[in-house]
Cation:proton antiporter regulatory subunit
Amino acid sequence: MDVNEVLLPGVGLRYEFTNHEGDRVGVVARRTGEFELIVYADDDPDEGRPMLRLNSEEADTLAEILGAPRIAERFADLTKEVPGLSAGQVEVRAGTPYADRPLGHTRARSRTGASIVAIVRGEDVIASPAPDQVLRAGDVLVVIGTRDGIAGVEQIIQG
C-alpha cells in the first residue's frame, strides 16, 4: 500500500493512503504529540473531515491494538520463507517457575536455540524484550526457532 507523507509546516506531518473501498484517509501527526484521523470528501479532494482526535497515549494504544494480532501473522509469513524455521506461542501460566521472574533467567535461547521475539501482554506487545523484562502470568511469548526449540521453550516456561 502506498502511503504519502506531507510536511505541514508548523503543524507536523500528514500521512495519506487510499483504502480498499477507495476512500482517501489521512492521519495528521501534530508536533504536540496529538493525532487526527481524517477522511477526505469525494467531491473535494482537499477537504478533509476530521473523524477522530487522539492524544499520544491513545494513539499508542490504538497502534498496539491494531498491530498486536499482526505480529504473529508476520512471523508466520517469515517462517514460510525459511525452511526449518517455525513460529510458536507459549503462555506463561500462573504458578509456573518463571512467572514474576526476568526473561533472562530462563536462558531459553542458550538452552534451546529458539528466540523469544515478543511478549503479548493483554493488548500490549513488547517487541524484542530485554533479558530483564519480567514475565507475568497470562503473557504469551512469541517464539521463533525450530519445532524442537519452540517445544523446549514451552517445557522451560511451563516447568
Notes: The two ends are 44 Å apart (CA to CA). The chain has two domains: 4-54, 66-158. The beta strands are 4-8, 12-18, 24-30, 35-40, 48-54, 86-91, 115-121, 124-127, 140-145. The CA atoms of residues 9 and 157 lie 51 Å apart.
